[in-house]
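call fold(seq) -> tokens
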Amino acid sequence: MTIAEVVPSLLAGLDVPGADNTLDLPSARRVVLLLVDGLGHELLREHADHAPFLSGLPGREISAGFPSTTATSLASIGTGLLSGEHGIVGYSFAVGDEVLNALTWARAGDHHHDLRKVLVPEVVQPHPTVFERAAAAGVAVSAVAPLTHRASGLTRAVLRGSWFRGVAGFGDLALASVSAASQDRSFCYAYHADLDMIGHFHGPGSEEWLLQLEFVDALAERIATRLPPDSLLVVTADHGMVTASDKIDFDTEPLLWQGVRVIAGDPRVRYLHTESDEVLDVWREFLGDRADVLSREDAVDAGWFGPVSPLALDRIGDVVVAMKDSAVVVRSQAETVLTVMKGFHGSRTRRELAIPVLFHSTT
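ret:
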């Protein structure tokens, strides 16, 4: 059971052709899907006392898929596919001669270099979205997200087919979600980012993070209590998070540079495009039991990315480095902000992959 199945399972209850309720979720004429960035299943379970509303909801655990990072998971939400098919294979990845930051749709390391004209979002991710399918079936589809996401590359790539409602904070996110549910046979996708951001800078489980979790819990409860009859609120996430205590700096380890033409991904998952077959062995020996270091072929054969299309295959890189425990591969010179963070995600640990699907029905 994966994040790619969430929206199709909900659309099945709205009679969208081809949608299958594989997660056995309740059905309703009005659906609000609230995605809380960074709300891992393990974190919510460990800190249930800070989120009494969410912790009291029925639901189940599913997998975010690999890599367990926001751009990839949002693409899976929007397409109903895993990364090996939709091709948004990480926080950053190579597309031709460019390394694309999928969140900003800019050149990795240079957020001022907009790539929307060079790497057209609808071409980078060409599959029809589940929102387009729902809209074609007559469902009123809305996306409620921060104002800055309107017309962004990622929004165009994975949320097209929805009517975008830009919001600035908790209050208008809640009210916009409820307003979207006022229409019969409606589906609203709502996104909240701040829990993840606080986890990155202060660490998951920190005092700051716990207070934000309390705010998120209140947000979900406010939405639930305002929804009209025959509505369903579903709360899920895009990944969990780990605290890093073991940082390996690529930019200051010359041994790791040898034979590496391009390095992409993020500190928990690195894609290495190589000029030498020795890179795989060098990285394996250097990292030891701190990472799973596989060739692209072995990672694909192991099913890390789900079914893999030619579109995604070239973006994965020749070597895939999935960090374990609390280890990360940072770049102190090229990725200064990422380097100083405390919380990370993207790899294959349970704390990163396990996410909740919780639901509340109104009568």
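The two ends are 28 Å apart (CA to CA).
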